[in-house]
Design a protein that fits this description.
Blueprint: H1 8-24, E1 30-36, E2 39-47, E3 52-54, H2 56-65, H3 78-99, H4 102-132, E4 153-157, E5 160-166, H5 168-191, H6 197-214, E6 244-248, E7 253-256, H7 259-267, E8 276-283, E9 286-292, E10 297-300, E11 312-315, H8 318-324, E12 331-333, H9 335-338
Antiparallel strand pairs: 1-2, 1-5, 2-3, 4-5, 6-7, 6-8, 8-9, 10-11, 10-12
Helix pairs in contact: 1-3, 1-5, 3-4, 4-5, 4-6, 5-6
Length: 340
Amino acid sequence: MKTDKLKPWVRFLLVLCGLALVAVLFVPLWRIDLDAPQYPEGLRLLIFPDKIGGNVDIINGLNHYIGMKTLHTADFIEFTILPYIIPFFALFFIVTGLVAKRKWLYVLFFMFVSFGVLAMYDFWRWEYDYGHNLSPDAAIIVPGMAYQPPLIGFKQLLNFGAYSMPDIGGWIFIAVGATLLFVVLFEWRKNKKKNNPTNILPMLFLGCFILSLSSCSTEPQAIRIGQDNCDFCKMTISDNRFGAEIVTKKGKVYKFDDNHCVVSFLNANKIKKQDIAGVYFTNFSSPNELINIDNAYFLHSPGLKSPMNGNIAAFSNEDSLIQLLPIFKGYKISWEDMQK
């Protein structure tokens, strides 16, 4: 039927998306950047459709010390499958544009969304295994510590800041997905009929797609000393030993220069406690590391002289705190007592 035909401009966009996916085969899909004081130029891991690139050898050498697996392209079946899946979708887009059938568009949308969700889950599963299954014979073992990189966004891993984000190929995928979402919505609205189940299904898939794109990262962000301002006292954060953060369940990050400001911010009801995903403090012994309050040990001492006279330092383990007691005379304090 003529009414089942897609608009010419919709067909053009679908063909264009198919051609764009072909380009994905030759560029990185994803990247993980690692920053640390000993590597001011940074390290980068690039994930292509068929291989791993970037500073792989250096990263493997560093990860060996903490018991993480070495990375090799041959160990991942995904690099064998992706070079076939991407051309399949490229061809599917082009054929759908040429055939111009609405039902083909809906099938394409369902399959592309399913692939996107499955791919992100597979990536998260790999990161979890990579960061948690550590060798018991590693040279450096931090009890209770895991090194799972962030799925997207920033995460502090010991003295390394890890940034995970799409690269050129990933952004092409996102642009193609957004374009497909737009044309499906356009076609659905143009042809919707009451009580027609075939018109309801695309909206269900649409909801799944939007949900998959709208998830927020609740990981802490690196505190930029000399650049970020405290969200309570508005002073520039200048001492990297006392920084702190509150991350909400929607991914908003509030940064502070002192424990006094964190507690005052909470007591002023600037944010509801049920909306908080995590509270983090800078590790006094390793200022590039942020520690969740559930895993932190706190020392209160007048000798610490923190920016706003809160005079409390956080540590990732009790031994580190005890070692500094002869220098900073004081006492242990809990997060609960800090809030009183």
